[in-house]
Amino acid sequence: MTRKEASSTGGAKKQVTVTINGKKYPADEGEILLGVAVREKIAIPHLCYEPSLDPYGACRLCMVEVIKDGKREMTTSCTLRAAEGLEVVTDTPAIVKYRNVLFELYLAEAPKSEVIKEMAARYGVTKTRFLKKLDTTDSLGNKCVLCGLCVRACNEIMGAGAIGFVNRGPYTVVNTPYFEPTKDCFGCGACAKVCPTKAVEFEDRGSERVMTSWSGTKVPLARCDCCGGYYAPKALAISTLAHITPSLREEIAALCPVCRGRRIARDEILAGRGGGAGSHG
Amino acid sequence: MKIGSAADLEAVRQAGMQKLRPGKPRIAVGLATCGIAVGGNRVYERLREIIERDGLDIVLTKTGCIGYCKEEPLVNISIPNKPLVILHKVTEADVEEIVKQVSRGKVPADKALCRVPSWDHVTGCTLEYGKGFSKIPLYEKVPFFKAQKKVILRDAGLINPEDIDEYIAVGGYAAALKALTGMDPETIIKEVENSGLRGRGGAGFPTGQKWRITRDAKADKKYILCNADEGDPGAYMNRNEMESDPHMLIEGMIIGAFAMGAAKGFIFIRAEYPLAIKRLKLAIGQAREYGLLGSNIFGTGFSFDIGIATGAGAFVCGESTALVASIEGRTGRPHPRPPRLTDIGGGLFGYPTDLNNVETWCNVPVIMANGSDWYSRIGAEGNTGTKVFSLVGKVDRVGLVEVPLGTTLHTIVSDIGNGGANNKKVKAVQTGGPSGGCIPLRLFETTVDYESLNRVGSIMGSGGIVVMDEDTDMVDIARYFINFATGESCGKCVPCREGLKHALLLLNRIMAKKGTKKDIETLALLSDTIVATSLCGLGQTAPNPVLTTLAYFREEYDALVKP
Ligand SMILES: Cc1cc2nc3c(=O)[nH]c(=O)nc-3n(C[C@H](O)[C@H](O)[C@H](O)COP(=O)(O)O)c2cc1C
Ligand code: SF4
Ligand code: SF4
Ligand code: FES
Ligand code: FES
User: Fold this and answer.
1) B444-473 CB burial, b ≥16 within 10 A, e <16
2) Across the interface, do A60 and B495 touch by the CB < 8 Å criterion?
3) Rg of chain A's alpha carbons, rounded to an integer?
4) Would you call the peptide bond into B338 cis, given omega within 30 degrees of 0 as the criterion?
């Protein structure tokens, strides 16, 4: 069994009751506690959690205290699994004290991120005592907090592995290998989609998508035969077609989604007039 | 030839004894990395030249290191029926005279450090060398050795680490034979549990318990690992253990593999230890040749082999989950536990895995040979056995010292180490490497055991003891370790990656006399935060040097800042 299987919610799961801040909530056994809190609208700040990915535990904001045998232990709720009788509390004085320091560290690390500023302000932290990191050459606009979501989405969900962590310690950044344009990138934009601080940028320029954050990686776009517009990265346009019936595939292969819709609708109408499909018996 | 029985082992033992005591003079040069670094190889080469030139009937060989770094290069001489004599600070210039004396059945007395009439190899073999040379001090009278107890370094500096026969001669592999042919896995694990042995990699987790958890995990395959990543600045115990006596590690792993039901083990060793890697490879090859590794060991049907995985110099790869990631070919970044290595899905390639430190494994053969009762009488309650420490820094007698757990810092630093170098006053020691803390002189009655060191804010760690004297700037020491930890942080979690960086910036500011009292408060709060919220042991312990210097040497910080 892999780590992922252990965490999968598939199959009939035993129901358990967990206690958060003194109130009882139902949960699947083994469910991630942070997930339960999110569902129940209990505010626990978090940056590196994504339900479809393996627990990661890097941002350290989601700390809760587990109460067990009268003792309390601080731990990250995104790596904590629901079990019968599990009891946690959020926002204890210790958590608040340490979390505020973490927010200050984030304000210094990603001084240009509005998301971080808003999140920290929600918890009363508006200033940082630490030296702000401002790097004019940063391709992530001084917004990245190294939560790793883009890297994991690219790797684990897309299977592309186009980006990764470069260097280590405080010099860690996310980018392509050797800061060179990479052929492994699909240009899907999953990285930008999952980024909690909106740090990842790309733009479509004519026939190309330019991944500005990823060393200027360029991805060719597919052009629609019908309207002439560029609509999606070529590689993705081709791989999506694999899921469509072969006869239809040929017909719509070179069309953008809008023109595809029109073409299919037109075909339907034509077919209907021919008296084939529409039997309103 | 394969060793399949007690009789086979005995035959090899006798052949090995012929090498150790060839019936003629034998000169052995200490050639661990330390000895080589100070010219041991040149001494060896010169000896070879002269012995060849004069056609003398003297055996020349190499050995590991007995740990007295200050006195290197060390050469030992055994003349039939005379005590073994250890010569110190030997240079090429001394060689001519040494050979002259030895060929007359004598030793150069002015070069002699001590004599060893008999030596207990702890694995059921006491070598009686002989009597004589009464003017040379006895080994146990030498202040550096007096308070030591050699259990792990039982053979280091005495046998040739590149020859399995010599290891077998002093009782090696008899423990493995006994365990595999005379004990069942349950009994072996019970013995390890009863011995009280705790992990020597730093955290002190009970070894028997870890073995039992691994054994009990329900999986069709298991792995065992040896952690030889030793990355603490100032720590080199494991290096010497592997360079001087690699077979004790291999034997320990064979016994462990049998007890836990593993068919394959790996030694994860840092690439910066080329000589240790070379000797381990050689030792593994020799063990395979004798059938001590491979299939059907001692005809029991049990099969086990060891591979070597080298690390590319990242301190964090000593952390268990990062270590496994590194062996699997992934980036060495820790992940949250559970799953632990012993869990299904958490270990190497997803299989339950036991990880132990080099020195932990090296304890296993002596426990099997002498029994848990014998072992648990060494050391202190709850902290049994001995531990090897590297005593370095501003101490007079630099070296590797092995003492029973529960020995006081005072004994180690003053009695064995003879206090500060160049007659300076000792001010503090730092134990446990970058994860440890600084302990001031007034607490030197602290006993060195896992709990006592924790109580004063430090840790045992893997066994580095760095001595600081009156001239040492404690704020600078804190900065040194924070700088180290910052560079070694894997960069995954924010308290460690960003927090340590800002701790370093604050320390730099304070050192540059530009800091304020407020900066000290910020530094303290930041350190607490890093300890409380980091993902892995590196971050969780990295601020200890700051926290302890703040607790014990606050005045040094205050003197540097504006009010
Ligand atoms: C950052 C870090 C570095 C470590 N480095 C080492 C090391 O070099 N050698 C070692 O044996 N254990 C090291 N450890 C401890 C190991 O994670 C593990 O606890 C140990 O190898 C277990 O073996 P033991 O039970 O025999 O002590 C390190 C831990 C951390 C957090
Ligand atoms: S770019 Fe965004 S998603 Fe990627 S590591 Fe940085 S903050 Fe996380
Ligand atoms: S504590 Fe440091 S070394 Fe450990 S995971 Fe966090 S960043 Fe990496
Ligand atoms: S969400 Fe838990 S550590 Fe980031
Ligand atoms: S002299 Fe060999 S370890 Fe120090």
Assistant:
1) bebbbbbebbeebbbbbbbbbbbbbbeebe
2) yes
3) 24
4) yes
- Asked if A187 and A264 sit in the same domain, the reply is no
For residue A29, tell me if it sits in a domain. yes
Mutation choice for ligand 1 from B319, B348, B493, CB with most ligand atoms inside 8 A: B319
Q: Residue A30 sits in a domain of what CATH number?
A: 3.10.20.740
Contact A17, A25 (CB under 8 A): yes
CATH architecture under which domain B173-373 falls:
3-Layer(aba) Sandwich (3.40)
Classify residue B304 as exposed, middle or buried by CB count within 10 Å of its CB (0-12, 13-18, 19+).
buried
Residue identifier of the C-alpha nearest atom 8 of ligand 3:
B490
Q: Could you tell me the two tokens for B516?
A: 């304020």
A97 CB neighbours in chain B (<8 A) are 525, 529
Helix pair angle (B517-533, A93-109), 10° resolution: 110
Q: Does A214 lie in the same domain as A234?
A: no
| Architecture of domain B19-163 in this structure | 3-Layer(aba) Sandwich (3.40)
User: For chain B, first and last CA: distance in Å?
Assistant: 76
Cα-Cα-Cα-Cα torsion A202, A206, A208, A211, nearest 10 degrees, comes to -10
Q: How far is CA B49 from each of CA B38, B42, B87, B96, B299, rounded to the nearest angstrom? A: 19, 11, 19, 10, 45
User: Which structural domain, as residue segments, surrounds residue A67?
Assistant: 3-91
User: If you search the block for the tokens 């990265």, which residue do you land on?
Assistant: A233
Distance CA B496, CA B534 (A): 6
A31, A59, A91 - which closes a domain: A91
Interchain CB distance below 8 Å, B533 and A57:
no
How many CB atoms lie under 10 A from the CB of residue B370?
18
User: What are residue A209's DSSP bridge partners?
Assistant: A204, A219
If DSSP codes are grouped into helix, strand and coil, which group holds residue B409?
helix
**Digit-coded pLDDT (tens) for A193-242:** 999 999 999 999 989 999 999 999 999 998 888 888 888 888 888 877 77
Q: Clarify whether residues A206 and A238 are in a common domain.
A: no
Report the relative pairing of strands A217-223 and A208-211 from DSSP bridges.
Answer: antiparallel
10-residue averages of pLDDT along chain B (563 residues): 95 96 96 93 97 96 94 96 97 96 95 97 94 96 96 97 98 98 98 98 95 96 97 91 98 98 97 96 98 97 97 88 94 88 94 98 98 97 96 96 97 97 96 92 96 93 93 96 95 97 98 96 98 95 96 97 86
Phi/psi of residue B301, nearest 5 degrees:
85, -10
**Kind of pairing, strands A23-28 and A164-166?**
unpaired
Residues A76 and A40 in one domain: yes
**Which structure tokens are listed for B190?**
């019970």
Q: Is residue A125 in some structural domain?
A: no
How do the domains of chain B map onto residue ranges? 19-163, 173-373, 383-469, 474-558
**Does the model's ipTM exceed the 0.90 cut?**
no
Strands A87-89 and A15-20: parallel
The CA distance from A89 to A72, in Å, is 9
Considering the domain architecture, whether residues A213 and A232 belong to the same structural domain is answered as no
- 281-320 in B: which are within 8 Å (CB) of A? 314
- Select from A57, A76, A129 the Cβ nearest to the Cβ of B522: A129
Nearest CA distance, A65 vs chain B (angstrom): 12
The DSSP secondary-structure symbol of A62 reads: -
Q: Is B502 on the interface with A (CB under 8 A)?
A: yes
Q: What is the pTM of this model?
A: 0.90
Spelled out in words, what is the top-level CATH class assigned to the domain B383-469? Answer: alpha beta
Angstrom distance (rounded) from CA B465 to CA B234: 8
Within a domain: A121: no
Ligand nearest to the CA of B232: 1
Q: What value, to the nearest 5°, has the Cα angle with vertex B199 and ends B198 and B202?
A: 120
Reported CATH class of domain B474-558: mainly alpha
Domain tally for chain A? 3
